[in-house]
Amino acid sequence: MPGLTIGDTIPDLQVDTTQGKIKLHQFCSDTWTILFSHPGDFTPVCTTELGKMAQYASEFYKRGVLLVGLSCDDLESHKEWIKDIEAHTPGAKVNYPIISDPKREIIKQLNMVDPDEKDSNGNLPSRALHIIGPDKKIKLSFLYPATTGRNMDEVLRVVESLQKASKHKIATPANWKPGDPVVISPDVTNEQAKDMFPQGFETANLPSKKEYLRFTNV
Ligand code: BEZ
After folding, report:
1. 45 lines ligand 1 (CB under 6 A)
2. What's the rounded Cα separation, in Å, for the pair 100 and 75?
3. Which residue is catalytic, options 24, 28, 46, 188?
4. pLDDT tens across 88-104, in order?
5. Are 82 and 7 in contact (CB under 8 A)?
6. Domain coordinates of the chain in residue numbers?
7. Which CATH number describes the domain made up of 8-151?
8. Nearest atom (ligand 1) to Cα of 48
9. 44 lines ligand 1 (CB under 6 A)
10. In this predicted structure, what is the pLDDT of residue 179?
11. Which of 23, 123, 125, 201 could covalently link to 216 via disulfide, CB atoms 3.0 to 4.6 Å apart?
C-alpha cells in the first residue's frame, strides 16, 4: 500500500492530544521524534506498550528524542485509559501526549492504518512507529500487526544507530548493540577513512579481497 515512508517529510497536521492541540512540525521542532500508534484504548497489548514507553521515556529524552503516541479513541477515553496504563506498569508516568483520531483521518495521512483490524467506525491503527529526524523526515518505520507488541529495547537500539549514522559516515551491522564496533560506509575510501577515523579501523580479510567490510569504533 503506498503511503508515507522513509525519506518522506511528515505532514504538518494539527492534532488533538491529551496535552492540547499540537502542530506536528512545531512539536517535532528540530530534534528527533518517535510517533507511535496503537489499535485502541483499553486493549491488552496497547496497555503494556504505552506503559513500557513511559518507563523508557527518560532514556529517549536523554538522547533528545520526543515521544508522541496515537490511538484512535477520543481524549476522554485516553485520559481514563492512562490511569490503567500507569497502574499496570509501576513507576510509569505517561508524560508524553497521545493523539486522538476518532475519524481515522490522521492514521491515513501518517500511513498507520491496519487493513485487517476494523471496528464499527472503520479501520483501526496498526502498531506503526515512525522515527522522525530533526529535518522532519522519516528515518525509520516499524509496522507491526495488532497481535505483536513492540520491543522498546529495539526502539532504543535503532535510535542509537540512527543518531550515530547521522554524525559519522558509518552504519551498524547485524545484531549491533550500542558499544559494539560499527562499519564504515562503502562510499568512504581507505584514504578518507584514515582521516575520518583516527582511532583506526580493521578491514575483514574476505575471499574476494575487496576491502569493503571495515570495522571501527565511534
Ligand atoms: C491489543 O492491544 O491487545 C489488541 C488490540 C487490537 C486487536 C488485538 C489486540
Report:
1. yes
2. 6
3. 46
4. 999 999 999 999 999 99
5. no
6. 8-151, 168-216
7. 3.40.30.10
8. 2
9. yes
10. 97
11. 201
